[in-house]
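Researcher: I'd like a candidate sequence for this fold, 328 residues long. If you have to choose between options at a position, lean toward the conservative one.
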């Protein structure tokens, strides 16, 4: 019921916005192009919502995501403000737009804000780790969401290079060696926006073997480009092999909530195993204290804030699509 009500409210807001834009485009023939562009934009938005993995839908989705990110939002405000500068003067509301853009950039790039945002996003994961739920139960498989944990092998490289999210690969290997599950399902589809035609799951398998995981214990899921697709493909693998739909889910702490709810929605019981924590001060009894430098803008802080914001946007999108189990 909550999903239906949210969709209704969301649709009503969109209709009101579209109607306002349509009315402002005027009624004479000179504005026919504006109306056609509006209709075309609506079609693209619908395509991006229902088919985000299609080439056109993905391009539109990335543009919309950029517009809602702190950096993208600030750039759009600044670009619009520059269009209001003419004849050596600045028309309103250009000053307000410039000040707003600067405030957004300063706040979102401050480490103290980034850490707070990450801590709020990782709150559920912190509770899981604190209760040791991720390391005391057994399952039929460990599911490693590995998209973006490695870089492709190109002619100038002779080894697989890991990214900052590769901690989940090491963690999955550790859980396997503890005997918590007989298999590791590596879910990572084709690399996005890379000239190299490779499947990331294959490279992750090589890393797991180097970490001591037997080949026979690694199951590749090479089709899941999104978390939702990974959940569907994983359930099919479990059913094909006659395994119980009970999995230990290894992913980043920021993503663990969406991942758990998505896999649960596909009929699996999920034991969350979060890693890749970003919060500096995740526990109330921590002795860490912020210093003056934590209030000064840093590029790394802006990246962290953007990552958290992207996850909230993805969580809301999954909620609208009905891909989350009750509990959102």
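Model: Candidate sequence:
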């Amino acid at each position: 019921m909550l999903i239906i009500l949210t969709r209704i409210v969301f649709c009503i807001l969109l209709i009101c916005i579209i109607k306002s834009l349509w009315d402002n485009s005027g009624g004479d023939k000179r504005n026919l192009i504006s109306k056609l562009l509006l209709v075309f934009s609506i079609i693209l938005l619908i395509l991006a919502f229902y088919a985000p993995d299609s080439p056109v839908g993905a391009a539109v989705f990335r543009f919309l995501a950029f517009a809602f990110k702190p950096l993208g939002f600030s750039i759009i405000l600044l670009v619009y403000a520059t269009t209001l500068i003419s004849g050596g003067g600045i028309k309103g509301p250009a000053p307000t737009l410039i000040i707003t853009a600067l405030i957004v950039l300063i706040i979102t790039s401050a480490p103290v804000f980034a850490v707070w945002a990450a801590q709020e996003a990782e709150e559920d994961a912190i509770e899981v780790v604190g209760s040791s739920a991720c390391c005391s139960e057994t399952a039929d498989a460990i599911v490693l969401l590995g998209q973006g944990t490695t870089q492709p092998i190109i002619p100038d490289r002779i080894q697989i290079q890991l990214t900052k999210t590769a901690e989940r690969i090491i963690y999955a290997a550790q859980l396997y060696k503890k005997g918590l599950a007989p298999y590791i399902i590596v879910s990572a589809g084709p690399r996005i926006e890379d000239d190299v035609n490779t499947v990331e799951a294959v490279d992750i398998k090589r890393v797991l073997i180097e970490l001591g995981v037997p080949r026979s214990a690694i199951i590749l899921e090479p089709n899941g480009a999104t978390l939702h697709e990974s959940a569907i493909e994983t359930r099919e693998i479990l059913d094909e092999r006659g395994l119980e739909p009970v999995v230990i889910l290894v992913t980043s702490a920021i993503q663990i909530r969406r991942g758990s709810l998505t896999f649960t929605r596909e009929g699996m019981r999920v034991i969350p195993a979060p890693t890749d924590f970003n919060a500096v001060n995740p526990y109330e009894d921590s002795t860490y204290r912020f210093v003056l430098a934590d209030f000064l803008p840093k590029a790394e802080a802006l990246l962290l804030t953007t990552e958290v914001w992207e996850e909230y946007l993805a969580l809301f999108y999954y909620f609208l699509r009905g891909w989350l189990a009750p509990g959102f």
